């Protein structure tokens, strides 16, 4: 019985990944309503959205789908000019090159360590820590597959709808802080131009990651399952560079009702990662309902006539 259920679940998942993008082309609204129902077992409330997931759906359908600035800032390359325009160019990671396709990548001229990423959507990254061990043929094939993707259709994230301007970016590999086994990444939730909370992931390298929310004073907020189950005497040291991250998040989030500003810390130095306008596409099933509602109350949606 379990095997049959598992097979049915996999089949349903494949059908969803095939059918939902087709529906999204015709009607993004219908697409997100169907997917929301499948994910949360309840109807999507677009007339009076309450949770953060619901409000992200509203923003996707009513504002972020056609906002020129959102499109610029969702692009991992053009966002750099926006960051510079806010006087924050010093926190940008160095880039070695920008290419229109895989054939333009000068593999022999790249350093031993680097990161390759497409400028649209998330997850299309190649992290190279030793070029001698890199299978260039395999990596090139993967980059080509990603370059043809219309991943934005699955969650109707039309801020990622890029056709002619698709680029491959080669960035500097960011070494972890001394004494750390992995890179420190911080995701700051900004509501109506104000940076409120930072989400931190601990233990990712162990395969059992824990997610915690802190306010700008580094007070642990009981907003995740992991935080609810943590002992009262457990202490997370405040990271050096936290105040600077909130400062930059405030500056670059001003024009947007909601955005998540992602940063890295390296030995206390702040490095900009990206701006994420629709985390998890507005389908974050790992966030408990009370937290989703609490975060949703922080976001005041604009009136659109």
UniProtKB/TrEMBL annotation:
Is Transferase found in the keyword set?
Answer: yes
* One matching Pfam family: ATPgrasp_TupA
Q: Which GO terms describe its molecular function?
A: transferase activity
Which UniProt keywords are given for this protein, alphabetically ordered?
A: Transferase
InterPro entries per the record?
ATPgrasp_TupA (IPR029465)
Q: Does the keyword Transferase apply?
A: yes
Q: What is this protein called?
A: Glycosyl transferase
Species of origin? Bacteroides fragilis
